[in-house]
Design goal:
By secondary structure, the protein is mainly β. The protein has a domain at 15-84: Immunoglobulin-like. The protein has one helix at 95-99; strands spanning 20-23, 27-31, 33-39, 43-48, 51-66, 71-83. A six-stranded antiparallel β-sheet has the order 1-2-6-5-4-3, with no helix packed on it. β1 and β2 (27-31) form a beta hairpin. The model is unreliable at 4-12 and 88-92 (pLDDT under 50).
Length: 101
């Protein structure tokens, strides 16, 4: 009867890695992307497995998007990359409130 009550935890999905690769400050490849919230020529807002990520720059355009693999490639002049979540134990707020501090 113990064969029906397995103690092995069941995972539906393996944990996804999150990597950022910048090439010559002109191309950025990001893995672990769950959702592209918004984007324009100056800023991309991405939801990743590690929190919200903002990529700021000039003449930005999406070079590649692979939803199944969670990979985004952005081309343009990269100025800034920042996470929008607090890591100091403070209760999580909505990402819009963090954008307009």
């Amino acid at each position: 009867m113990s064969q029906y009550y397995s103690q092995v935890p069941h995972k539906d999905k393996p944990e996804q890695n999150h990597d950022i690769v910048i090439k010559n400050r002109k191309t950025i490849e990001i893995t672990g992307v769950k959702h592209v919230e918004s984007f324009d020529h100056e800023e991309f807002l991405l939801e990743t497995v590690m929190g919200y990520l903002a990529v700021k720059g000039a003449q930005l355009k999406m070079q590649n998007l692979n939803v199944e693999q969670g990979m985004v490639a952005i081309e343009g002049k990269i100025f800034e990359i920042s996470y929008l979540d607090d890591q100091d134990g403070e209760a999580s707020k909505g990402f819009f409130s963090k954008l307009f501090r």
